[in-house]
Write a structure and sequence with these properties.
The chain is mainly beta and about 475 residues long. The protein has one domain: Neuraminidase, CATH 2.120.10. It is about 5% helix and about 30% strand. The strands form ten sheets. The protein has a five-stranded antiparallel sheet, with no helix packed on it. Strands 8-9-10-11-33 form a five-stranded antiparallel sheet, with no helix packed on it. The chain has a five-stranded antiparallel sheet with strand order 31-30-29-28-35, with no helix packed on it.
């Protein structure tokens, strides 16, 4: 049985950057870290789920297993949630550079016998390795040789196919057009055969640029919007989701300013980096930019929050699992819903289609299963063990209407954040590192990746609440 939330009951609880994903009308919240102002972050041993249809005021959470076999990972240390995607057969994949899975149907942790050349250890030495879920695969772009806009871009990229569990690799055909080395850009896949990189930053330089990778031609290009300037300020650390031909990007940090009272990071004497309260929308069919800051139902909105890995999309809804209005105040186990069809906040997320799978021969196992039989047909998935805890509790999720002071924070992406990426459900791809997501000596880690010539105070303040190294996504 996994540990319950720090509120004393079952539910996601007080955490930063968990893996949030949706499969077969069930939302899963896995792992993450607990952070406070005086102690180093520590792992959050919690795995919970809830089902659709979903009403934000009355959520039922089911406690799932955190009994991760030692052969897969040390569950007493930080376990990277990357890439936080679900395979077509229902394997939740996490682990950073040491990938393993959780078979959702069989309720077992499983090893992944990946074939092909695994690039993850090599990629972990680079900066801004960008990941995105594309149908039944995860794309990893090769990143850059270091920090800063003057660093060399790597033209290699890698694909993990989650049907065959095989790695493959290729190269960008126009390396001179690879996007600049911006930090904390969002990535999204649209069913037009393209991957989009949205916004990002370097010190004192936030961008609204959008870049497009054509999967067939393997080429990058700068998107030329039909209405340039419609996104009024650059931003980073946002989260994106796709719906039809639209990319919705929620929350994030924006230009330095001192006008966002109570919602900013102080950057020594350098100024302020504030939370943006705008939803940025891109119509990829016309390259039209839309900036949304007013909603018809602000009483259901999440308000200004430090969001990090706390949302997933389901059908035409993006579900946010909790609200963090500042570094010390959390509203755990609350749920908020943004409807992509009406482009407004609501208190309900509908049931979606169920993915039916046949039950083939069980996968070979290197160790006896603690419970259940795997329904995954791939010989590259082996049952290691782990049972589901049976506790269920009903938690009243308090929707805070009064918090909506400045419209809404920027949005998050994630196509993934999807069932198989970008189908009817979208899977969230968190902006995280390939290795350990948290470091006990986080400030030293942040400073280590700072651009040359930038004061330590800048890097420490800018990422104090994300606890993510500079080379994250």
């Amino acid at each position: 049985m996994s540990e319950t939330s720090s509120t004393g009951g079952i539910g996601p609880g007080y955490k930063d950057a968990p893996c949030v994903t949706i499969y077969n009308n069930t939302m899963f919240v896995w792992g993450g870290g607990v952070v406070n102002e005086t102690n180093p972050p520590y792992p959050y041993k919690n795995f919970t789920s809830t089902t659709f249809p979903l009403t934000t005021t009355n959520i039922t959470w089911t406690d799932l297993s955190w009994d991760i076999p030692v052969a897969l990972a040390n569950n007493n240390t930080f376990i990277s949630i990357s890439p936080c995607v679900v395979s077509p057969t229902g394997i939740l994949v996490v682990g950073g550079t040491n990938l393993f899975g959780y078979d959702i149907t069989a309720a077992n942790y499983v090893s992944l016998n990946l074939t092909g050349a695994n690039p993850l250890n090599a990629l972990s030495t680079r900066t801004n390795v960008r990941m995105v879920n594309v149908k039944d695969s995860v794309y990893y772009f090769g990143g850059y040789s270091g920090t800063g806009l003057n660093q060399s871009a790597m033209s290699d990229y890698y694909i993990l196919n989650m049907t065959t569990w095989q790695w493959s690799s290729s190269f960008v055909q126009n390396p001179q057009s690879i996007p600049p080395n911006f930090d904390a850009s969002s990535m999204a896949y649209v069913d037009n055969g393209a991957i989009y990189m949205i916004a990002g930053s370097q010190p004192f330089n936030y961008t609204t640029n959008v870049y497009k990778f054509d999967i067939n031609s393997q080429t990058w290009s700068l998107v030329q919007p039909s209405n340039p300037g419609a996104w009024t300020s650059g931003f980073d650390t946002a989260e994106s989701f796709t719906y039809n031909n639209f990319i919705f990007t929620f929350d994030g940090y924006s230009e330095f300013n001192a006008t966002i009272i109570n919602y900013y990071y102080r950057i020594s004497s350098l100024g302020y980096a504030g939370l943006t309260n705008v939803t940025h929308i891109l119509d990829t069919s016309t390259n039209t930019l839309i900036q949304q800051s007013v909603y018809n139902s602000p009483q259901y909105a999440i308000g200004n929050s430090f969001l990090s890995g706390v949302a997933a999309s389901h059908e035409d809804s993006v579900i946010f699992v909790w609200d963090r209005p500042n570094r010390t105040i959390y509203n755990p186990d609350t749920v908020y819903v943004y409807n992509l069809t009406i482009r407004d906040w609501t208190n309900y997320a509908a049931l979606g289609p169920y993915i039916y799978t046949t039950t083939p021969n069980s996968a070979p196992s290197s160790l006896p299963s603690a419970s259940g039989t795997s329904t995954n047909s791939s010989p590259n998935v082996a049952v290691i063990g782990g049972a589901v805890g049976g506790s269920v509790v009903v938690i009243a999720a308090i929707v805070i209407a009064a918090v909506f002071f400045f419209k809404r924070r920027n949005g998050r992406f994630r196509v993934p954040q999807s069932s198989p990426p970008h189908s009817s459900e979208q899977q969230y791809m968190p902006p995280q590192s390939l290795g350990e997501q948290y470091n006990p000596d986080i400030m030293q880690n942040i400073i280590m990746f700072k651009p040359d010539g930038i004061p330590d105070e800048y890097m420490a303040a800018k990422h104090r609440d994300s606890y993510l190294p500079e080379y994250r996504q």
